[in-house]
Amino acid sequence: MKNVAIVGCGAYMDTGYGCPGEWRCLKAAALGQGKFEEPVKVVAFHTCHCPGRNTAPNLGMAVKLSEVKPDAVYLSSCLANAKPGCPHSTPLEMAEIITAKTGLPVILGTHDYH
Ligand code: SF4
Question: At residue 74, what are phi and psi to the nearest 5 degrees?
């Protein structure tokens, strides 16, 4: 079973607009639905906070210190598919920064639940 880290958009999560926490991401990961091709183990969950400068450094530290390394990082659907989008960076820009910091592949989105 693969290990993954998930990054959620804190600006969305903290307002509770239909996402009372991270259950959609965790459900999709547990069941292998949405962007997860098979059930995976979530070993890290990072909440991004505007303007997003904490995300790559914190993930980098988590990957460095954790004894359970993630194989990939997933940007949550509320981050990757947001409309209006993040005013600070595009999902692709954030993915490139995270990959440069951690060396891990980044997948845009987690689930298709409504
Ligand atoms: S920087 Fe963008 S992705 Fe991060 S919390 Fe703010 S709006 Fe969400």
Answer: -110, 130
